[in-house]
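Hello,

Our lab assistant flagged a job as stuck in the queue for most of the afternoon. It eventually completed. Since we weren't sure the result was trustworthy after the delay, we are filing this so someone can double-check. Below is the sequence as submitted and the structure that was eventually returned. Let us know if re-running is recommended.
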Amino acid sequence: GHPTIPFSMEVDWDMITNTKKDPEVARKIRELSRMKYGRPAAEVEEFINLRAGANEPEIPEPKFGGFDKGRIPF
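-- returned structure --
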């Protein structure tokens, strides 16, 4: 393969900070984002629990009965 070309990014902070803020536009952006990417909380919780293995049954610890009458087991 070929190495990727590095990139640089420049942000005009003065333009960003001096731009007029419109709460209505911000509300519309949030609403559109919720409509496009949002999922019900129960669905997200179910996915997390499934991936984390929270619903899997616990495997019981093996029980050690000890050595019979002090004898070595081998």
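-- support follow-up --
The delay was a queue issue, not a problem with the job. The result is valid. Helices lie at 13-18, 23-37, 41-52. Residues 64 and 73 are 12 Å apart (CA to CA).
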